Amino acid sequence: MINLEQELAYIQQHIPITANLGVKIESFDGNEIIITAPLEENKNLHGTAFGGSQAAIGILTGWALIYLKLKQLGIDNDLVIQKSEYDFKKPVTADFTYRCAFPSTETLDSFIQTLKEKGKSRISLTAEVESEKGICGVHQGLYVVFLK
Asked: How far apart (Å, rounded) are the C-alpha atoms in residues 45 and 51?
């Protein structure tokens, strides 16, 4: 069983910006992760969530999903983002939530199999940010994993 508080502490130690964003890992079920963030720590001069914070948390959400899944499977790895794109749909005016899941069981299985066979694999993940106005943004990330 993965202890989400311990894993968040590990992430904050190794990716220091995450400690300043006020994020919490609300849940991880092996297929989906939910991360929350407070507006207060991430707001800009307009009182809405700063775009850089939204993008950083979007990257983190996909990264954390892969990180926790590979930890759950006992696969020692190095994980990086290769490509990142964020689509700002609506202003975020309250605390917000990111949700990211593996696209399908087949995609995840193929990703893991390629990693084991070739020592490297890529996966594209989508994280949506939701607040009181509904879906406010979408992060699309391409992540690369290397076996250690």
From this structure: 11
Task: Write out pLDDT tens, residues 52-72.
Answer: 999 999 999 999 999 999 999
The domain 4-147 having CATH identifier 3.30.70.1400: the answer here is: no
pLDDT at site 85: 98
Q: What is the pLDDT of residue 1?
A: 82
62-92 burial: b if 16+ Cβ within 10 Å, else e: bbbbbbbbbeeeeeebeeebeeeebeeeeeb
Handedness of CA 142, 102, 35, 75 (dihedral sign): negative
> What is the arithmetic mean of pLDDT over 23-45?
97
Q: Which amino acid is at 43?
A: K
How far apart CA 145 and CA 70 sit, in angstroms, is: 10
